[in-house]
Amino acid sequence: MGSVHPFRRRSSHPTPSDGGQGVDPASAAPPGRAARLTDSASAAPPGRAGRLTRRRRPDPLASLAGLGPRAGLSRRGGRFLLLGGALVLAAVTVAVLVVATGPQATSAPTSGPAPSTTVPPARLKPVLGGLLDRHKLPPEQFQGAVAGYVVSVGWAELQPTAGGPLAAANPIDQAIASARARHLQLKLRVLAGTSAPDWAKRLGGDPVRVVDAYGHSGTVGRFWTTAFGQAYLDLQQRLAARYDRVPEIAETQITRCTTFFAEPFLRQGRNPSTIRNLVRAGYTAAADEACQREQVDAHAVWSRTRSGLSFNPYQRVEGGQVKHDEAFTEQMMRYCRSKLGAACVLENHSIRTTGQGRLYQQMYQAMRSLGGAIGFQTASPNRIGSLLGTLDWAISQRASSVELPVSYRTSSSPGSLRPRNQRLQAIARSLA
Q1: pLDDT of 346-364, one tens digit each?
Q2: At 210, is the secondary structure helix, strand, or coil?
Q3: Is the dihedral of CA 383, 388, 392, 394 positive or negative?
Q4: Which of 85, 102, 119 is the last residue of a domain?
Q5: N or C end: fewer C-beta atoms under 10 angstroms in the chain?
Q6: What is the per-residue pLDDT for 432?
Q7: 145, part of any domain
């Protein structure tokens, strides 16, 4: 039905809205003048018919309401009555539409752009900040001086069967309960390498024996293969599904391509038997490079929790020989940031005041230049040199967290650690 405009002034000239007909002058004249005009040509004297007679066109509003000039109301009164009826009709129509559409009546106009169906990205948890005990719950006397601790647990302890669920009441669950009671942060380090389950170590062949620089021996799986990579991805998916929303877990660790420690760029190159065993099992530098990238990709399943990747000057194995490739290390820093963005935490686990040579200095400079979240772990107590000096250097590098050596419990005081803990936390907050 067309819209009605009750306040539009009618004209005696034809318009598209009145179908080319003139408007009845009698209906538009004041009541006192209505008698001057006749209703038809037969009512006027023949000589004046051409001047006074008009063909009266029915009032469309009056016709609509069933009212005519003899309906007992004046023309003006009838039109006011019709106007009121039209307004009532419009109000009823609006009310019916509101009831029919319900809450959708407040939605955006259909003529505007369609609402976006894109799910907004999940918000990352705050950057892990402060000093951390690298082994267990810190002593209560260090409350306020140590902000959290590392939950270090082997893959074999979490997923003893291939494709199976995570173990219930595992060390991660226990650590969450302890951290929550003490208001501490957690860094999750699930170790692969020698801590991988036996079923994962046997993917593609028998486990490979390796020996580290300190004489410790163990076995690892073919971490560079697709089958091992799929198993690691399955583990990360299960861990993320269970712990990504847990606020106490501020960071996790990338560990697929590792041997003894959470340091995937080390190949235990000082031990010739380790290199020989890896090569015999099918290890190549090209396969290892692919492994390094794929382990980063696997951590994209963590949408809220940041992932730390520990860097060293890469030990490249080619032709049975080992050489350092610090350029590849820097390349992987950029790759991690390109894939995970701010969720990628650049780390190194061997800082000290005694110095480590030119390649490490180049690597630290690259980390500092890239900025963002940076985390460190100190060297062992017999290699660190000065603990407080090491922590001050880490702060100068704009690190947000540092894992302490086990000796901090006896070699330092809460009073000496507290201001350094606060400075690290301030850096973490600045990265939010």
Answers
A1: 999 999 999 899 999 999 9
A2: strand
A3: positive
A4: 102
A5: N
A6: 81
A7: yes
Q: What is the DSSP letter of 379?
A: P
Q: For residue 122, is it within any domain?
A: no
Number of helices followed by number of strands (H, E) in the chain: 15, 12
Q: Residue type for 428, please?
A: A
Residues 267 and 373 both lie in one domain: yes
Same-domain check for residues 261 and 315: yes
Other beta carbons within 10 angstroms of residue 420's beta carbon come to 20
Q: Which residue has the tokens 């350029």?
A: 327
Residue 117 has pLDDT above 90, yes or no: no
3 CB contacts (<8 Å, ≥6 apart)? Answer: none
Q: Where are the beta strands (DSSP E) in 29-172?
A: 130-133, 148-154
Q: Say if residues 151 and 227 touch (Cβ distance below 8 Å).
A: no
Q: Could you read off the pLDDT of 164-188 as tens digits, one per residue?
A: 999 999 999 999 999 999 999 999 9
Residue 18 corresponds to which tokens in the numbers above? 């009145």
3 occurs within a structural domain: no
Rama region for 129: left / alpha / beta (φ>0; ψ in -120 to 50; rest): beta
The two beta strands, 130-133 and 217-220, are unpaired
pTM of the full structure: 0.73
Q: What is the mean pLDDT of the chain?
A: 81
Range of the domain at 231: 130-430
pLDDT tens across 78-101, in order?
Answer: 443 334 444 434 444 434 333 334
DSSP 146: B
Q: Which of 358, 344, 357, 355 is nearest to 310 (CA)?
A: 344
307/240 Cα distance (integer angstroms): 11
Comparing C-alpha atoms, which of 72, 74, 88, 70 is closest to residue 6? 88
Question: Can you tell me the distance from the alpha carbon of 241 to that of 243, in angstroms, rounded to the nearest whole number?
Answer: 6
Total tally of structural domains belonging to the chain: 2
226: left (phi over 0), alpha (psi -120 to 50) or beta: alpha
Half-sphere exposure of 234 (CA within 13 A, CB side): 16
Distances (CA, A) of 100 to 27, 36, 56, 93, 96: 40, 52, 43, 11, 6
User: Phi, psi (5° rounding) for residue 293?
Assistant: -75, -45
